[in-house]
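Why do we care about 3D structure at all? Because function follows from shape, and shape follows, mostly, from sequence. That is the central idea of this module. The next example makes it concrete: a single protein chain, its amino acid sequence, and then its structure expressed as tokens.
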Amino acid sequence: MCFTLEQICLQKDAFSKFKKHFKNLRQEIFPEFSLTTKPQTDNLTAVLYGIGDLRLEQRPIPEPKDHQVLLRMESIGICGSDVHYLVEGRIGPFVVEKPMVIGHEASGTVVQVGKDVKNLKPGDRVAIEPGVGCRVCSFCKEGRYHLCPDMAFCATPPIDGNLTRFYVHDADFCFKLPDHVSLDEGVLMEPLAVGVHSCKRANVRFGDVVLVMGAGPIGLVTMMAAKAMAATAVFITDLADFRLKKAKELGADYVMKIRKDMQDKDVIAKIKETLGEDPNVTIDCTGAEQCIRIALQVTRTGGVVVLAGMDKFEVTLPLTSAIFREVDIRGIFRYNNDYPTAIEMVKNKKANVKALITHHFKMEDTVKAFQTARTGEGYPIKIIIHANPDWKP
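And the structure:
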């Protein structure tokens, strides 16, 4: 049988189209093959057994439910609360009583989707909002799901976290990252959402003068959020020079080092002298008793103090002055509906969260990464652990 050149070209084109159609069909039926063609068995996982006892162990790869996605985890950040659980074994009423997977600041790549998932597909890169409410209580129905009494939040006992190779999560709490936003930046959406929520609680807007107490990761993202929300000036304080240097690099208008021997009145006088006025919004990101006292006294009459940091459960505060001057005191607990805002800030270069990342570790070096976070060796701000074994520095 003989074919003309035109017939051969037509057959070749038809075969190429069939090949492409078959590939798409295969990925639709077997979505896990869109990222890998061989079964996965490596699910190395970081498990906290108790105070000072963090281990790496293999766990089964979970199966997603109909409304969930299976994620190949990529980047996971170490939060101060993770270190607190490692060192103290508890945060307030949340106590590590059985082995718990650590980690809640994370990004991943979708590997498989449940049959009811419409918003994501295999290959999508996502930032993971780690807390999922019950969806039926009054708080969830009001849109304040972060206050849900049955909130399931990663790495908050007894709920497992996501410092693991493979992890399942509710699809509607996974937010697709824009193409030019990296997976490492996706990790920082979690702390940035805290900063966004803090500024929303304070109703930060154009013309505000904002004081941020503490230049750790939460203080720095809060400062960036306030700037993105058009605060006229942001003043940030801290004990450490390297953090204040970073704050200045990221756009803080004023920075101030607080020495441990300084009295409240001296700090207040310096802030007022530098600003030339009282801040009308103060956001404390330390939880330290002295910082809260200063916040209540330095904030302008009729202003707002937001308490974002947590330390001791009971503190002594000068409440009378704040009451007489109608200074509003508002707490914040995590965030709600703030991930989209955080992603937009990074997408539009209003918040340079990538600049906060100072250290990178492979999954196999997780214990070393936590040791670095605990000791502060090398002046870490944000430490990233890479769960994907294909990651290279």
